[in-house]
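Feature request, filed as a ticket because there's no other form

It would be nice if the structure record came with a short human-readable summary line next to the C-alpha cells. Right now we just get the raw output. Example of a typical job, pasted below so the devs can see what we mean:
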Amino acid sequence: MTDDTEPASGRYYVLVDVEVRDPERYRTYMEKVRPALEAAGGRYLVRGGSHTVYEGGWTPARLVLLEFPSREAWEAFYEGPEYAPIRSLRDETSTARLVGVEGLAPGT
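Raw output as currently delivered:
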C-alpha cells in the first residue's frame, strides 16, 4: 500500500523484523553486511535494541531499522551482486520480514 499525499524526502527506510535461528552464524552475517551496507550509502538507525509493542498482535523478535539515501540506493544494495552471498547467509540463519517506506521531506 502506498500513500503519495506527503512529499518524500528522498530518504528511504527499511524496517526488518528478524528471528535468528543460528546466532553464531548470524554474527558472521552481521560482520559481513555492515561494510556492504555502508558502501551502498546505508546506515543503521536501530539494530536489535529493546522494543515495546503498544497495539496489535505483532510480536517481533529483533528489529532493525535502516536508512538509505533513496529507494533506488536500497534496491541497488538489496538486489546487487555484493549483497547476494551475504543475503544467502542471512536466509540460512534467520527468518526476516522487511518493509520499506519513503521518508517525509523536512518540515512536512
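Something like this underneath would help us a lot:
The mean pLDDT is 92.
The domain at 10-50+60-102 is CATH 3.30.70.100 (Alpha-Beta Plaits).
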